[in-house]
């Protein structure tokens, strides 16, 4: 990215000044090298977002921002419905409510090491992953609608988990005001065989070791200690969310002129929040979010069964579950005023600081756990939301490493077998149905997650709590 | 890459994948983009033509018709758990009829790499150049 178009405000904060026809400035977070390495298209896409109506405050790019479609991945923007604000299907993306759930296990490395290979095989057999995999749960029309309204709460009621799981899930496991009637039959058909499946691409289930503790007092409140074994699940709303995105993007593209909205990029397709289309999209998107929460809850249930079959003393309790592709109604203080905003986070993680009324118990004192997924074979992180994040980024942080090279480049440089062997030398067991998929997800195809997280902390968006290193990785 | 006179390629994109194709005919262009889509998932030449699926699309312009066509293929692949290796497109103005042939995904034989979530409107274009060649590109989310 050309730095001459930005004003450096601090070591980790860069401003895109307002110039007509922008409505608001853009703020990019990252060190000089990270901003330099971002594609110019990140600038263009963030600039395009500043042209949308009803924006409140700056639009933001997180340190892991990269070229997406419509919004940049790692983009955050908030709209006021009363000021003509919009909701954008392109600002949420196809993988509605994609997110990360991390589970304690009560295990230590010595418990896992003797059964690591067997456990990897059992997890691979027990958690449907990859193209063409199907879950064992089939929902009829009534059950599908109940799931879309109830999210993880529905899943727990069906026996896929325990009530305590909900206390550690964003929105306590259920997004309100979801409307299954706003979800097309096509979307529901696409989900028919996909409940409890991981998907493919960068989605995974990992067993990880807590390698470093940075903030002992917060780690203690989160129940994390050095050498603890945890399990992280990264996936989203599967085919249902993809089809909701497809359906509403098309409708919003075709309706933009009718709303008097000029789209600098068709993929920014949006509709006024107060319009019938905007309301229908919100109803459908919230149903998609519930689908993602239910999906991760069911995968949790399957994971518990597999792990306990080999390690009966393991206790898989939720640390937290948080999404990073969403639009949610939140209260934020902007210019000294409390405003109700529709916050879009596309590849950015909500990061509420200490004292947030959305957090329960120990989390309210510590701040919300912010779960950052690494790439296959690299570290993941547990961060904590900070008080300063509210003013800096509407309580948003990064979501992962972000790709450094395209899938095609990765395929040219790495072989699947080579990647598996290299990771095995480091004690990491990979299981995946696709060798080419492993090559495309090679660790070096991604940016350095350590630096992304360092910049996130230095910028005051979230605080480092623990670094997790992979032991077993089940890739879709 | 060319298979059966279809010319297409995959483009570099940070997070997702771009498809680009060209053809002497508008129909051939839509067929080539479909082949490029399949090639993200598996090798098109390795797909048997066991079953036929008929797809109908209609859109106000060629770019939107291309997105609709790719999304219809993605939907059929997902709900039928199929991959396609043969495409025959007929166009009547802005109406498209596609006869596509393929088979159920065989995870061992096809080694499917990635499921495609949807076709996007980013960097989307369908152009008929002055030499009479049709060109298209589209970024898909994977």
Give a short overview.
Chain A is of the alpha+beta class and 476 residues long.
What this model shows, in words?
The complex is a heterodimer of chains A (476) and B (142). Chain A contains 16 helices and 19 strands. Chain A is an alpha+beta fold and 476 residues long. The relative contact order of chain A is 0.18. Chain A has helices spanning 32-37, 40-49, 109-112, 116-126, 141-157, 163-167, 185-191, 216-222, 238-255, 276-310, 361-366, 389-393, 407-413, 416-425, 435-440, 449-458, and strands at 7-10, 13-16, 26-29, 59-69, 71-79, 86-88, 99-107, 204-213, 229-235, 270-272, 318-323, 325-334, 337-346, 349-350, 369-372, 380-385, 396-397, 429-431, 462-475. Chain A is globular, with a radius of gyration of 21 Å. In chain A, 34% of the residues lie in helices and 25% in strands. Chain A has a single domain (3-404, 446-475), classed as tRNA-splicing ligase RtcB (Alpha-Beta Complex). With 142 residues, chain B is an alpha+beta fold. Chain B has a single domain (2-141), classed as Archease domain (Archease, Possible Chaperone, Chain: A, domain 1, 3-Layer(bab) Sandwich). Chain B has helices at residues 26-41, 62-80, 107-110; strands at 2-3, 6-11, 17-23, 51-58, 82-92, 95-104, 118-119, 125-128, 134-141. In chain B, the strands form two sheets. In chain B, strands 1, 2, 3, 7, 8 and 9 form a six-stranded antiparallel beta sheet that branches. In chain B, strands 4-6-5 form a three-stranded antiparallel beta sheet, covered by helices on one side. In chain B, a hairpin with a 2-residue loop joins strand 5 and strand 6. In chain B, helix 1 (26-41) runs parallel beside helix 2. Chain B is globular and about 45 Å long. The two termini of chain B are 21 Å apart. The model of chain B has no long low-confidence stretch (mean pLDDT 93). Chain A binds chain B through residues 39, 41, 66-70, 73, 90, 93-95, 130-134, 186, 189-190, 192-193, 199-201, 239, 242-243, 245-246, 249-250, 253-254, 265-267, 269, 402-403, 406-409, 433-437, 440, and chain B through 10, 12-17, 41, 60, 64, 67-68, 71, 74-75, 78-79, 81, 105, 107, 110-115, 117-122, 124, 139, 141-142.
């Amino acid at each position: 990215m050309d730095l001459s178009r930005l004003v450096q405000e601090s070591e980790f904060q860069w401003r895109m000044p307002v110039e007509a026809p922008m409505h608001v400035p853009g703020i990019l977070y990252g060190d000089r090298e990270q901003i330099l390495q971002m594609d110019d298209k990140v600038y263009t896409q963030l600039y395009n977002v500043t042209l949308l109506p009803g924006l409140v405050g700056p639009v933001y790019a997180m340190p892991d921002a990269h070229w997406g479609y419509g919004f940049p991945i790692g983009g955050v923007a908030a709209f006021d419905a009363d000021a003509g604000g919009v909701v954008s299907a392109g600002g949420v993306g196809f993988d509605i409510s994609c997110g990360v759930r991390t589970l304690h296990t009560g295990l230590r490395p010595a418990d896992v090491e003797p059964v690591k290979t067997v456990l990897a095989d059992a997890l691979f057999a027990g958690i449907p992953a990859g193209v063409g995999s199907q879950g064992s749960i089939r929902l009829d029309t009534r059950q599908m609608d109940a799931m879309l309204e109830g999210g993880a709460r529905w899943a727990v009621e069906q026996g896929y988990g325990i009530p305590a799981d909900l206390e550690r899930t964003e929105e306590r496991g259920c997004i309100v005001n979801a409307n299954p009637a706003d979800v097309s039959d096509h979307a529901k058909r696409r989900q028919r065989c996909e409940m409890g499946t991981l998907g493919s691409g960068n989605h995974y289930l990992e067993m990880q070791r807590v390698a470093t503790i940075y903030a002992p007092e917060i780690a203690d409140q989160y129940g994390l200690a050095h050498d603890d074994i945890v399990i992280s699940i990264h996936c989203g709303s599967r085919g249902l969310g993809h089809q909701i995105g497809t359906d509403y993007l098309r409708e919003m593209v075709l309706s933009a002129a009718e709303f008097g909205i000029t789209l600098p990029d068709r993929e920014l397709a949006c509709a006024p929040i107060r319009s019938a289309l905007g309301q229908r999209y919100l109803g459908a998107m919230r149903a998609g979010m519930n689908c993602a929460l239910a999906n991760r809850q069911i995968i949790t249930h399957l994971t518990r069964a597999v792990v306990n079959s080999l390690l009966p003393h393991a206790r898989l309790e939720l640390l937290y579950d948080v999404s990073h592709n969403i639009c949610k109604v939140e209260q934020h203080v902007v210019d000294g005023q409390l405003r109700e905003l529709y916050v879009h986070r596309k590849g950015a993680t909500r990061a509420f600081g200490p004292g947030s009324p959305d957090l329960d118990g120990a989390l309210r004192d510590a701040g919300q756990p912010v779960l950052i997924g690494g790439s296959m074979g690299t570290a993941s992180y547990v961060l904590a939301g900070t008080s300063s994040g509210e003013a800096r980024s509407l309580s948003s942080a990064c979501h992962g490493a972000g790709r450094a090279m395209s899938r095609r480049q990765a395929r040219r440089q790495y072989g699947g077998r080579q990647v598996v062997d290299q990771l095995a030398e480091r004690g990491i067991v990979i299981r995946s149905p696709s060798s080419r998929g492993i090559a495309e997800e090679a660790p070096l195809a991604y940016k350095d997650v350590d630096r992304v997280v360092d910049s996130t902390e230095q910028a005051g968006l979230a605080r480092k709590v623990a670094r997790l290193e992979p032991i077993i990785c089940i890739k879709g | 890459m060319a298979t059966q006179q279809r010319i297409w390629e995959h483009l570099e994109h940070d997070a997702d994948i771009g498809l680009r194709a060209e053809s002497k005919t508008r129909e051939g262009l839509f067929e080539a983009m479909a082949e490029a889509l399949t090639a993200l998932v598996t090798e098109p030449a390795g797909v048997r033509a066991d079953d036929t699926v008929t797809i109908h699309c209609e859109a106000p312009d060629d770019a939107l018709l291309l997105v609709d066509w790719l999304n219809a293929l993605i939907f059929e692949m997902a709900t039928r758990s199929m991959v396609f290796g043969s495409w025959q497109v007929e166009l009547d103005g802005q109406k498209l009829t596609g006869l596509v042939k393929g088979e159920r995904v065989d995870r061992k034989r096809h080694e499917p790499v990635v499921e495609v979530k949807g076709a996007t409107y980013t960097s989307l274009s369908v152009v008929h150049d002055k030499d009479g060649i049709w060109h298209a590109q589209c970024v898909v989310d994977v």
